[in-house]
Amino acid sequence: MKYRHSFHAGNFADVHKHVTLVALLSAMQRKDKGFLHLDTHAGPGRYDLAGPDTHHGAEARYGATLVLQAPAVQAEELQQYRDAVHHMRRAFDSPQLYPGSPWLAAHRLRPQDRGVCWELLPAECRALERTLGGFRRVRSECGDGYQQLAAVLPPRERRCLLLIDPPYENAIADFDAALAAVASSLQRLSNCVVALWYPIKDDRTLTTWLSRAQRAVAAPTLDLQLWIHARDSRVGLNGSGLLLFNPPYQFDERATVWQAELLELLNKTAHGGNAVRWLNAEAGLDHASA
After folding, report:
1. Distance separating alpha carbons of residues 20 and 22, to the nearest angstrom
2. What are phi and psi of 93, to 5 degrees?
3. I need a surface site. Which of 181, 211, 222, 259 has the fewest CB within 10 A?
4. All residues at 6 or more sequence positions from 44 whose CB lies less than 8 Å from its CB, including other chains
5. Is the pLDDT of residue 192 over 90?
6. Is 96 helix (H, G, I), strand (E, B) or coil?
7. Is 236 left (phi over 0), alpha (psi -120 to 50) or beta?
8. What is the pLDDT, as a whole number, of residue 3?
9. In 3D, which of 147, 142, 119, 150 has the Cα closest to residue 45?
10. Distance CA 89, CA 250 (A)
11. Are 74 and 261 in contact (CB under 8 A)?
12. Which residues contact 134 (CB under 8 A, 6 or more apart)?
């Protein structure tokens, strides 16, 4: 596998994914009861935006940097995201660090919450262990996260937030594997909240993917999309999407607010847009609180 998280650290898709993750964690914590957080493709957990591995933060200039340098933000989800990044930089005394999803989750977990993060690449797994070394409630493991899900689900807490963020080197195979992991996880814990990130590259492929997801998983499914290039552009990555299975109650309403503000901060091409829509809807159940 050639994929390295660091190449795209802090880009607009990273920001979209990380703000969503922070918002989901906050929603899960509306209840005092603890939950298990799982991350199947964790990466090293932190990135140096001044270093060569991130191309000296080249992609972050059009993502995280724009959000962090904004004079102010209105949505609490964006403020929580900014606070978390600044907290990491103070904790490691490094003004150019950027957190990955494992650190963002570990930073927010309460004493009654737990986390498990998996990384397949040995070098990145060792880096992840160093990143999470100060967090007692989270453990990192080297291996295939998909294969390990069965060993931890259902958890004793009976509540779970699962993040799946594949590399999509083989887009069709990765999407199929992710959907299979979602379906299997929901069979083991029907109220599990699952966030599946996917790239927006062209609408034909995307429409096919989303139709397959709608048929494959019967759970309530919310689709969040944010794009900063025209949807038929050939730049490589036009936008970022997240499928949220069993999303927390009223999460769609809050996402509509913060996605619009995030787009305003990131949309320097004037070709961007965002969407919050249901693929499968079911009203009345707060899955984050179940």
Report:
1. 6
2. 50, 50
3. 211
4. 5, 6, 100, 119, 124, 127, 128, 131
5. yes
6. coil
7. left
8. 43
9. 119
10. 32
11. yes
12. none
Three-state DSSP class for 223?
strand
Q: Of 168, 170, 242, 179, which is closest to residue 213 (Cα–Cα)? A: 179
Element (H, E) at 48: strand 46-48
Under the banding of pLDDT at 50, 70 and 90, the label for residue 289 is very low
CB 258 within 8 A of CB 1: no
Report residue 32 as tokens.
Answer: 């005092």
Helix crossing, 251-266 with 76-91: angle to 10°? 70
- How many whole angstroms separate alpha carbon 191 and alpha carbon 161? 9
Q: Hey, what are 23's tokens?
A: 């918002």
Distance CA 282, CA 244 (A): 13
For 98, the enclosing helix (H) or strand (E) is: strand 97-99
Interval 205-233 mean pLDDT: 92
Digit-coded pLDDT (tens) for 123-165: 999 999 999 998 999 999 999 999 999 999 999 999 999 999 9
Q: What is the C-alpha to C-alpha distance for residues 281 and 222, in angstroms, rounded to an integer?
A: 8
Query: Which residues are identified as catalytic?
Result: 165
- State the Cα–Cα distance between residues 194 and 110, nearest whole angstrom: 19
**265 token code pair:** 């901060």
Query: How high is the pLDDT of residue 284?
Result: 38
> What is the rounded distance in angstroms from the CA atom of residue 238 to the CA atom of residue 225?
11
Q: What dihedral do alpha carbons 128, 287, 196, 204 form, nearest 10°?
A: -170
- pLDDT given for residue 12 in this prediction: 95
CA–CA separation, 168 and 171 (whole Å)? 4
Q: Look at residues 49, 41, 50, 23 and name the one whose alpha carbon lies nearest to residue 104.
A: 23
Would you state the structure tokens that stand for residue 283, as one six-digit string? 């009203």
Pairing label, strands 221-227, 273-280: antiparallel
